[in-house]
Structure formats: C-alpha cells, structure tokens
Amino acid sequence: MTKGERAYYVTTPIYYISGEPHVGHVYTTVVADVLARTARTFQPTFFLTGTDEHGQKVANAAAAAGKTPQQWCDELVPRWKALFAGYHVQYDDFIRTTEKRHIVKVQRVFEQLRERGDVYLGKYEGWYCVNDETFWLASKLVDGCCPTCGREVEWISEDDWFFRLSAYRDRLIEHFRRFPAWVQPRSVYNEMMAILEEGLEDLSISRTNFDWGVPIPGDGGVIYVWLDALLNYITAIGWSEDEARFRTYWPASTQLIGKEIARFHTIIWPAILWALGEAAPELVFAHGWITIDGQKMSKSLGNAIDPFALKERFGADSMRYFLLREAPFGSDFSYSEEKIAQRHNGDLANDLGNLLQRTLSMVGRYRGGVVPAGRPGASDFAQTFAGLPMTVRARILDLRFREALEEIWRLVTALNRAIDERKPWVLQKEGRSAELDALLYDLCEGLRWLAVLLHPVMPERTRNMWRQLGDPGAIDADWSSTLARWGGLEAGTRTAIGASLFPRIELLAAEP
RNA sequence: GGCUCGGUAGCUCAGUGGUAGAGCAGGGGACUCAUAAGCCCUUGGUCGUAGGUUCAAGUCCUACCCGAGCCA
Question: Model pTM?
Fold first, then answer.
C-alpha cells in the first residue's frame, strides 16, 4: 500500500510522568508534529501522544510527595500539555493510561490473549529493579545493583502471568528479514536482530508487589506497565470498539521512539499485535540522545535542560527549526545555546527574516505595499522550483528533515541572490517598471511558498510571515492547491510589513 | 568477552569502486532594498592507523586505535 491511499498515523512514546518533562520529550514530540502537519497537507492524519502513568516508580514518586498516584498524575499532566502547547504541538489526541477508555481495553487484551493461550500462569523468581521496571538475571547485576541505573534490586518471587513471546521469534526474524527498513536507523535494526538471534524468553506481564496499574481481570495484581503502555497506540484509535476508525489508522505509519526503548517497540510490540491478530507498525524510528558537550543529558548528572526556559530564550519556532536542522535524525544530537543562536541568527534572521523584510520594504517603497502583477508563467523560479514541494514532502516523511530544510533553503538563497543580481533599486531609478513588477512579484510569491513549506516546522512564525504577505488564503491547506503552480499569489494583495520575523539574538560574552 | 554504528576541511555533516563536496566559521571584493543582514570570490582535507584486493578504494577485505551503543 502506498502513501496517500490511507490515513497517516504517527505516534510518540507516551511519556512516563515520574517527574517534569525535559527537552528530549520536546524533541520527539516536535518531530511527530512536523510529520503530522506535513501529512495533513495531503491525506487524513492522526497524531497521538500522551502519558504513561502506571507503575511502581510513579507510585513511589507520588508517595514521596505525599500524594495519591492519581493526584500526582493529574497535577503533572497539565505541565506536559502546557509544554507541548508552548512548542505549538498540535496533536489529535493525548491519551493517559489512567483513563477508563484505555484501561478497559488493556483488560480486554489480557483476556483475549489468555483465551488464546498466549498468556499463561507461571512462576517468576528473580531480581527486579523498581526504577527501571525491569527484571535482571543475577549474572547481569553490577555489584548486586541494577546495571542500568545502579540502584539496589529486589528479590521477587511470585506467581506471574507470562506472555508467550518466545513463540513469535521465528516470525519476528522473518519480518525483520523481509522488511529491512521497518526499524531505523540501521544500527538499531542490527541490534534488535542480534537479540532475536540469541533467542527470546517469555515475558512476565503481571505484578503483585504493588497495585498502581491496570487490575488483572479475575485475578489479583496488576498488568506489567510496559504491556499497559504499548497498548495505548491501539486503544486510542478505537481498537475493539470502533472497527472502522481503527482500520483507518492501523497499522501506524511511523512510530517514533528513543533508542533505549527499541526492544519493547520492535520485538515485544509486534509480537503482542500478532497475538491479537493485528499487523505490526510500518516503521519504528529510534532517534538519538540529546547530548551536552558529548555527555548524555540526565537528571542524575544534573545537566537536564528546562525546555520552558529554552522556549522563552529562543522562541518555540527557532527551537523547532534547530532540532530538525542541526543533526541528521537518528544520530545523537549535540546541543548548545551557541549552536541554537547560530542557527537562529544565520539561517532564520539573516537568510529568511531579512529576505522577508527587504522584500516587503521594497514593495512598500516602490509599489505602495501592493503586490504588483508579475509574469509568473515566464519566471525562472517557476521552472526551477516546480518539484520542490514533492521533494520536501518526501524528505520529511522519510524523516530526513535536515535534507528537507536544505532543499527549502535553496529557494531562500535563490531569492536573496535574485535581489542582488537584478538590483530593484536600479530598476526603480531607471523606470524599468515591468521588470521591477516581475521581480517583486516573484519575491513575494517565493516568500509565500516558503511560508507554506516551512509551516509544518515553524507554525507560528510562518503565520506571521503569512499576515505580512497579505494573508493570501489558508497557509495549511493542501499543497496541491497552495503550491500547485508558481503564481498563486494574487496581484493587488496588500502586504503589511511588520516587526522583524526573527530578531537577532546576541549571546552574552563567555566568562573569562 | 561477543556484536553494532561512527571516526571525511576549524565546526556540523554529505559522499556505498572511477579526477575529494556542502553549510557554518576564517580571508578578500563589489553593492545598498534589508535585522552591519544579503551577494560574489576565496583559504582549508595524505578521507582514524597499518596492511591487502583491484587497472582504479573515502567507498571492498583484515588487524588495530578512538568514540557511542547493544548483548552477555
């Protein structure tokens, strides 16, 4: 099935709310938003994000704060929603795993799998890390502590429900071989394949040592938080409830994850789906870490960045641009305020913002602020950039954001170059008004294209551009109408030059 | 201990057998509509190291070094 024939469904992981959000959460969510906003310009689209609220870690955090887990979650969720709103994220649904619509379906999944025999009762004994919600073999422990987080592990001995993961190993291997691009980047694919080739054990999916979770139907204990969490991707779109809706969106087009949760999403998740008789997602893409001076960002290192403060300092759209432009998606991402400022000043203020300003200034000065009639059919730009929208769309949906932006910047550069080469101030002085009209028209039309093409990446600033260009229609309409041809901007449109689109940011001098 | 990915210009990266590229930074120039922005020209790399295969290797093979990660 090719893209365009059915709906585009993109998901972020649901975020575990054991604390405040950080910039890594913004990264994943913004990327999903750009995918969704792009997809919406040509096909039905659904973008899901949300919060993962069960598990012992949340229960402990709540207890430490003197609150019930539900209170704790209810107070934190608005922080996440405010953050995403602040970064102009436009999700279609925000699911919380404590919602009834989710819980009843998780229980239904459990019952179905138990009826099928894919869930069975067994005995589990072993070491368990509360922080990571993970069981460890004794051989993996480091000085008796969790090899991942270094905290003490607990000895657990209980009758557990198991998911028959091992039964899906062959099918997983076959799936990986048949669809070598279904897990990206390649390094993650290889690592998951290595895990599969080593062999799989059945997965314990029940917990009895705490009760903050989805109750197991007809038994004590709660369902393993990871099973609970993964199911959000289908419970939110009507699985077992609204068949037509569910079939519209599933299987997901793109599931974004951090690489630390690749195993859950590329091994356990497809196996569960198959056990339910559903298809695996089309693409799972694991992005890299955000690093600071090469160091992983984490709360324990004390170098986590407050995304609210970053937004205030640089602006949400500049941050969005930076996150997509700076590193190839999938690679680790080295962050610094200097780099953000460099991108903001160099690409956004100098190239794009200044282009808008110099253009509208000349339209104001030479043509009273009204877009003149040009000759778009005869424009060099029409020919050169006819294929740009399709190229940009393809690059974005392929998650090659950096390349997409580089393509768009070819137009920015071409417009800036045209001004310098054709010298509108000379055309004006010499009274060559037809040439001047044609040039000014092309510049405005080019800026209109840029606003449309960049709108998924910088929704707020491009709306500002749009207003300055005279508000020529719907900026987020289907590209097959807005960018159908060079010449969509109507002559006579009254422009409204405003304040600088991206005022330059001066970094404070470094301390000696 | 096994495995994976990466190591290309000061920086961030592209380049999957056929004369080393882009952007930024650095240097020079012409202009003035513009956020002292933009435009033009330009300096700069023995492509981690050592071997090997090939008429030809950044690109394939082997070993090693460095970085990140996965598994044990």
Answer: 0.93
Distance B53 C1' – A414 CA (angstroms): 46
Residue closest to sugar C1' of B31 by CA = A420
| Amino acid identity for residue A494 in this structure | R
Name the residue closest to B5, CA to C1'.
A187
The CATH number that applies at residue A348 is 1.10.730.10
Q: Measure A185 CA to B5 C1' (Å).
A: 9
Q: Of all helices (H) and strands (E), which one includes residue A291? A: strand A290-292
Residue A465 falls inside a structural domain: yes
Closest by Cα among A236, A223, A241 to A113 = A223
Distance CA A438, CA A444 (A): 10
In tens, the pLDDT along A443-491 reads 999 999 999 999 999 999 999 999 999 999 999 999 999 999 999 999 9
On strand B, nucleotides with any atom < 7 Å from a protein CB are 2-6, 12-14, 22-25, 30-35, 37-40, 67-72
Q: Tell me the DSSP string of A78-141.
A: HHHHHHHHHTT---SEEEETTSHHHHHHHHHHHHHHHHHTSEEEEEEEEEEETTTTEEE-GGG-
pLDDT digit string (tens) for A221-253?
A: 999 999 999 999 999 999 999 999 999 999 999
Distance A167 CA to B5 C1' (A): 30
The helix/strand/coil state of A482 is: helix
Query: How many domains, in total, are found in chain A?
Result: 1
Residue A419 lies in a domain: yes
Residue A403: CB atoms within 10 Å: 17
Q: Which two tokens stand for residue A43?
A: 């096909």
In a domain, A473, yes or no: yes
Buried b (16+ CB within 10 A) or exposed e, A236-271: bbbbeeeeeebeebbbbbbbbbbbebbbbbbbbbbb
DSSP codes of every residue in A156-190 = EEEEEEEE-GGGGHHHHHHHHHH-TTSEESHHHHH
Confirm whether A459 is domain-assigned.
yes
Angle at which helices A433-454 and A354-367 cross, to 10° = 150
Q: Give distance CA A190 / C1' B19 (Å).
A: 36
Residue owning tokens 């070819």: A410
Structural domain boundaries enclosing A453: 337-482
Q: How far is the CA of A136 from the C1' of B69 (A)?
A: 19
A148: exposed, middle or buried (Cβ count in 10 Å: 0-12, 13-18, 19+) = middle
A176 in Cβ contact with A189 (< 8 Å): yes
Long-range Cβ contact pairs of A331-334 (< 8 A, separation 24 or more): A331/A185, A331/A288, A332/A288, A332/A289, A332/A290, A332/A291, A333/A27, A333/A288, A333/A289, A333/A290, A333/A291, A334/A291, A334/A292, A334/A293, A334/A294
